[in-house]
User: Which sequence fits this backbone?
């Protein structure tokens, strides 16, 4: 008897059984993911995780909206609208919207004091810094499924598109002091990779002699193992920066002169490029002129390759505008130009090799947030080693974009394994030898893990 593809009946049966078991698991997990997003919904917006993060966060809400759009479109649209309610009149999109009061978080609205700032919205307290720009690509991805088929989506697009453009214009005018096309972040919290070893040299340079101690005010240590969280010394510096920004009433030109923290982050700028690309797509759908956005984008792509690419190491590094040097620490932010489509085929091959040698390194799940051969690598500590699902999701898309199908597949496999065998955690221990039930770290019931699981699984289904 001839067997198609040399598959014996027994192994064919096995393959079928695996297929059905996987389908069963993903159906069950999809239901759980939806439940998490429903539980964390506060009526129009979704908190990242109960206990640790009780408000609406900026880039979280983009990923969350994408996940919601698979099963609750109205909530996805509300999520985005409610995020943009916090937008400042100068275009800045804050990293947190405090839609309700909750004592269980520090620093809350009283510390940010943005009511004293002329650009902050009235009637909604927000933080005074931003986070990576995600809405251009989130809406562009949603448009692929929804534009022209759902009038509520088309209305949302018309309303939100100019607001995203205003946010990008804010970045290009207020955060690019030398008009290079690369925007800087003024706080590690703006990167989204809060406790990455990237920030050590910049933060260590801050003199804390007269800086207030906030250790007693922290709430995160009550809910998560303190050894996995940033140190009190670091928190002093985080709050020093917030107090500094507040003293200038969040005026970026004054802040840039005075701040010790001004970094052109690879992840932030890559997401800006990918979101510019999304906006150009959306402009086409809306009949808008995208010439300005195209110019921004060409400039940023050229600048990221000029200033952040390190030929000797074959890696993209952040650039510290204060000491005018690259920050030579290999972290997963360095792969994000793949997601942005900003590197050449040659660079992409070198990045792929780095991924296998320094991150997979034989026996680590993809993709640790810090290269395992870096001295600062720590498999348990917040952004210093563990795997984050949003980074994996961008890496997956980036590898696919450059034709690394097998590596992309491995990232997806590891991601699904982590979630299905461990749970919907905030981040995960990447070591092979760790038992699956012990891998989950940080917050549980984590919204973007649930949202991006839905996106991964939906795509997996489509690819089959
Ligand atoms: C942590 C993460 C940040 C995220 C926030 C809310 O601070 O570092 O990226 O936005 O939690 O989930």
Assistant:
């Amino acid at each position: 008897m001839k067997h198609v593809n040399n598959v014996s009946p027994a192994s064919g049966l096995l393959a079928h059984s695996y297929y059905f078991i996987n389908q069963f698991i993903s159906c069950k997990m999809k239901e759980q993911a939806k439940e998490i997003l429903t539980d964390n919904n506060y009526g129009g917006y979704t908190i990242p995780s109960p206990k640790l993060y009780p408000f609406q966060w900026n880039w979280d809400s983009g990923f969350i909206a994408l996940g919601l759009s698979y099963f609750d479109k109205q909530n996805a649209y509300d999520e985005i609208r409610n995020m943009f309610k916090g937008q400042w009149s100068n275009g800045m999109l804050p990293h947190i919207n405090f839609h309700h009061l909750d004592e269980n978080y520090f620093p809350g609205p009283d510390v940010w004091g943005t009511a004293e700032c002329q650009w902050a919205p009235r009637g909604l307290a927000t933080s005074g810094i931003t986070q990576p720009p995600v809405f251009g690509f989130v809406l562009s991805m949603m448009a692929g499924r929804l534009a022209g088929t759902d009038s509520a989506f088309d209305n949302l697009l018309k309303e939100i598109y100019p607001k995203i453009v205003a946010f990008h214009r804010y970045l290009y005018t207020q955060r690019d002091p030398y008009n290079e096309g690369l925007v800087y972040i003024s706080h590690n919290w703006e990167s989204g990779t809060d406790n990455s070893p990237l920030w050590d040299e910049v933060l260590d340079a801050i003199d804390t002699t007269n800086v207030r101690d906030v250790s007693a005010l922290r709430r995160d240590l009550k809910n998560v193992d303190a050894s996995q969280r940033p140190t009190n010394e670091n928190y002093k510096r985080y709050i020093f920066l917030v107090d500094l920004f507040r003293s200038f009433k969040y005026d970026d030109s004054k802040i840039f002169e005075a701040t010790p923290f001004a970094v052109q982050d690879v992840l932030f700028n890559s997401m800006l490029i990918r979101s510019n690309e999304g906006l150009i797509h959306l402009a086409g759908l809306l009949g808008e002129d995208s010439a300005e956005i195209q110019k921004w984008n060409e400039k940023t792509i050229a600048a990221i390759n000029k200033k952040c690419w390190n030929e000797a190491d074959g890696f993209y590094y952040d650039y510290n505008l204060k000491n005018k040097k690259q920050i030579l620490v290999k972290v997963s932010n360095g792969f994000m130009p793949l997601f942005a489509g900003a590197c050449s085929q040659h660079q992409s091959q070198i990045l792929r090799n780095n991924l296998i040698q320094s991150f997979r390194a034989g026996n680590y799940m993809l993709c640790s947030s810090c290269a395992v051969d870096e001295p600062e690598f720590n498999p348990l500590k917040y952004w210093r080693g563990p795997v984050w699902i949003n980074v994996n999701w961008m890496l997956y898309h980036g590898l696919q974009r450059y034709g690394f199908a097998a590596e992309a597949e491995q990232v997806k496999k590891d991601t699904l394994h982590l979630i299905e065998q461990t749970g919907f955690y905030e981040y995960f221990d990447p070591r092979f030898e760790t038992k699956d039930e012990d891998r989950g770290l940080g917050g549980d019931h984590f919204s973007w893990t649930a949202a991006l699981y839905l996106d991964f699984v939906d795509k997996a289904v489509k690819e089959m």
